Amino acid sequence: MPGREAQQAYDLMDKNFPELNADGAPARVVFRAEDGKITDPEAKRAIQETVRELSDDPQVVRVTDPYITRSVSADGSTAYAQVSYEVPASKLEES
């Protein structure tokens, strides 16, 4: 609602960080190691390749790297990447 603190926050985000697009759909991609740990070299390469591929999608504004954002579980079995889209969920293409 115009004039509300939440709207002011969205407006500030749009002004100062347009690449984040506060109105775009968010998604979380979860990675889980069936054997070994997410931090093992082979798993890490696969996850970082997936993050790169997600970043190449024309509707994606930003994808976080779970190793940089420290989004890896304490036991090393699970990690996640946060995906920010430039469009709302209702306008995402299925592909």
Whole-Å distance between the termini? 32 Å
User: What is the number of strand segments?
Assistant: 3
Mean pLDDT rating = 84
Oligomer: single chain
Percentage of residues in helical conformation: 25-40%
Radius of gyration using CA atoms only: 16 Å
Principal-axis shape equals elongated
The fraction of residues in strands falls at: 15-25%
Poorly predicted regions: none
Largest sheet features: 3 strands, antiparallel
Number of helices: 2
Strand order of the largest sheet: 1-3-2
Helix/strand order: HEHEE
* Class by SSE composition: alpha+beta
Report on this model:
The protein is an alpha+beta fold. The protein has helices at 5-16, 41-55; strands at residues 26-32, 60-63, 78-85. It has a 3-stranded antiparallel β-sheet, covered by helices on one side. The longest helix has 15 residues, at 41-55. The model has no long low-confidence stretch (mean pLDDT 84).
Topology:
Elements: H1 5-16, E1 26-32, H2 41-55, E2 60-63, E3 78-85
Antiparallel strand pairs: 1-3, 2-3
Record keyword descriptors for this entry.
single chain; 95 residues; alpha+beta; three-stranded antiparallel beta sheet; elongated
In short:
28% of the residues lie in helices and 20% in strands.
